[in-house]
């Protein structure tokens, strides 16, 4: 069951004299960390399933941003004491739609059918795609170590 669906979107700071790219990066990391901490404190999950970025972005900036986001997610989950299972985008597509070359629409259709939705996905196409990918990650981890451990604990 999907109880809550949200994404964290950071905004690039306006380029001002004295504002370095690294300052903007740090602010974005802090925004993401605060968002994740709020989700953990609000929903008190027993664990987390996270889709790893594939690392094949077309630009150095995109690769750096994915790396920073992955580091923030890993650090927040570790600080919160949550066990985590990492899944690949290919595993998400395979688990959700049955094939590694599935489209975003295929994943969306599959996860809409796989879960009961008590929360509406975000209204923008980009944010909704992230929500459906996250739900697909749950399908990819369904028989993984984390889910088996949580099932044994009765979480």
Notes on the structure:
The protein has 155 residues and is mostly helical. Helices cover 57% and strands 5% of the residues. It contains six helices and two strands; from the N terminus they run αβαβαααα. It has a two-stranded parallel sheet. Helix 2 links the parallel strand 1 and strand 2. The longest helix is centred in the N-terminal third of the chain and has 23 residues. The chain is globular, with a radius of gyration of 16 Å. The relative contact order is 0.17. The mean pLDDT is 91.
> Mean pLDDT across all residues, rounded?
91
| Succession of helices and strands | HEHEHHHH
Given helix and strand content, the structural type is: mainly alpha
What gross morphology would you assign?
globular
Radius of gyration, in angstroms, nearest whole number: 16 Å
Distance between the termini: 14 Å
The helix content, as a percent range, equals 55-70%
- The number of helical runs is 6
Largest sheet: 2 strands, parallel
Write down how many β-strands occur, each being a DSSP E stretch of 2 or more residues. 2
Tell me the β content: 5-15%
Instruction: Give the strand order of the largest sheet, numbering strands 1, 2, ... along the chain.
Output: 1-2
Unreliable spans are: none
